[in-house]
């Protein structure tokens, strides 16, 4: 994998900065890679390439069926490299390899093909009769240059849900992965190059929050899709609102399991285990609270304790492991803080 370059408009090029992003294994706490960090000049270059590809290039002018064929080529390459992608994600974020194979990579592979099937039946063009008998023709067109900013917890799942629909619609895309998880995005860039999408259609720029901010505020970007914290999402929304650009946000999310008085404790415990601790508990829809009837609290507490005790905690590369490490020390400290607060509050 190319770690010393960034992927701009379909070409590998030297980053404009000398900075490096050190990717640390959450399991061993040892460095696993050092990748080039993109800078503002790289964003300018990527936007310029994306604008040219959208404004004058072939991609948005292809028939939907032609774009579907191109994305299917990417899906084929992706499918062939699934094992490599799963191991890479486990190495950078510590997701148990069984979960990485099934959800971190398996789901995105399925979604690529599902989005292609959906695009086949999508009404790109439509003819209607107007209220006064006039002929109305509707053509659904791509927005333009889209910026996709992805967090570290489900990097490929969230990348694919942003990238593939945008490509099928005819948009050009600039992807910025989280600094904790740039490796899977760079591997995806290799696949994109192998599948021979037109020049300028996709760029991949690893970088920190300041790079994301520069990308979001760039006047050449027409649409921003962001997944992350509520605080960061507010800043993204405000930046896009200043010049009325479109934005899609998926922010935060702390759901509760609500348990009724006639529920079976064993069934509840098994369900909560899956819904709370997939990906070592690092998913946006994890059940982080469990609300049970006060009179049966011990029943459910005992069942949950038994269920949690049975889980295999260990090396994320071991297929038997069900819970691996958290992504970073700061995340571990944050979780410990929540536990201590809960204990203090009874």
Q: Please, could you describe this protein's structure?
A:
- The protein has 346 residues and is an alpha/beta fold.
- The chain folds into two domains: 5-251, 3-Layer(aba) Sandwich (Aldehyde Dehydrogenase, Chain A, domain 1); 255-344, Aldehyde Dehydrogenase, Chain A, domain 2.
- It has eleven helices and 13 strands.
- It has helices at residues 40-55, 64-80, 82-93, 97-121, 155-169, 183-195, 209-217, 230-241, 265-277, 297-309, 329-344; strands at residues 5-8, 11-14, 20-24, 31-36, 125-129, 135-139, 145-149, 172-176, 202-204, 223-228, 246-251, 255-258, 287-291.
- The strands form five sheets. A five-stranded parallel β-sheet has the order 9-8-7-10-11, with helices on both faces.
- α3 (82-93) packs across α4 and α4 (97-121) runs parallel beside α5.
- The longest helix has 25 residues, at 97-121.
- It is globular, with a radius of gyration of 22 Å.
The total tally of domains equals 2
Query: Strands across the major sheet, in which order?
Result: 9-8-7-10-11
**Number of DSSP helices?**
11
Report the radius of gyration as a whole number of Å.
22 Å
Uncertain stretches: none
Q: What summary fits the major beta sheet? A: 5 strands, parallel
* Tally of strands: 13
CATH topology of the largest domain: Aldehyde Dehydrogenase, Chain A, domain 1
Could you give the distance between the termini? 49 Å
The coarse silhouette is globular
Task: Tell me which CATH architecture of the largest domain applies here.
Answer: 3-Layer(aba) Sandwich
Mean pLDDT: 95
Elements, N to C (H/E):
EEEEHHHHEEEHEHEHEHEEHEHH
- Strand portion, in percent? 15-25%
Structural class, by secondary structure, is: alpha/beta
Q: Which percent bin holds the helix content?
A: 40-55%
CATH class of the largest domain: Alpha Beta
Supply the CATH superfamily name of the largest domain: Aldehyde Dehydrogenase, Chain A, domain 1
């Amino acid at each position: 994998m190319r770690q010393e370059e960034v992927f701009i408009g379909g070409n590998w090029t030297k980053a404009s900065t000398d900075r490096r992003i050190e990717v640390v294994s959450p399991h061993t706490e040892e460095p696993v890679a050092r990748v080039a960090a993109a800078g503002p000049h790289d964003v300018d270059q990527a936007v310029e390439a994306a604008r040219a590809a959208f404004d004058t290039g072939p991609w948005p002018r292809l028939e939907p069926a032609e774009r579907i064929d191109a994305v299917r080529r990417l899906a084929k390459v992706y499918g062939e490299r699934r094992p490599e992608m799963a191991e890479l994600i486990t190495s950078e974020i510590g997701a148990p390899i069984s979960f990485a194979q099934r959800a971190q990579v398996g789901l995105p592979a399925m979604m690529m093909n599902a989005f292609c099937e959906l695009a086949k039946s999508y009404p790109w063009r439509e003819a209607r009769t107007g209220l006064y008998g006039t002929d109305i023709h509707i053509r659904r067109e791509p927005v333009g240059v889209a910026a996709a900013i992805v967090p570290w917890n489900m990097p490929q799942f969230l990348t694919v849900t942003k990238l593939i629909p945008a490509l099928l619609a005819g948009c050009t895309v600039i992807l910025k992965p989280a600094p904790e998880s740039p490796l899977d995005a760079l591997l995806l860039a290799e696949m994109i190059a192998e599948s021979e999408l037109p020049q300028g259609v996709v760029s991949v720029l690893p970088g920190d929050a300041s790079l994301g901010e520069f990308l979001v505020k760039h006047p050449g970007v027409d649409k921003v899709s962001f997944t992350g914290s509520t605080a960061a999402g507010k800043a993204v929304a405000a930046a896009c609102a200043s010049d009325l650009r479109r934005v899609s946000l998926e922010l935060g999310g702390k759901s509760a399991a609500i348990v009724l008085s006639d529920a079976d404790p064993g069934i509840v415990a098994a369900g909560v285990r899956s819904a709370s601790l997939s990906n070592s508990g690092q998913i946006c829809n994890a059940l982080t609270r469990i609300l049970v009837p006060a009179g049966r609290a011990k029943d459910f507490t005992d069942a949950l304790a038994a269920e949690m005790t049975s889980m295999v905690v260990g090396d994320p590369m071991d297929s038997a492991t069900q819970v691996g490490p958290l992504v970073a020390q700061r995340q571990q400290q944050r979780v410990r803080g929540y536990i201590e607060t809960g204990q203090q509050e009874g």
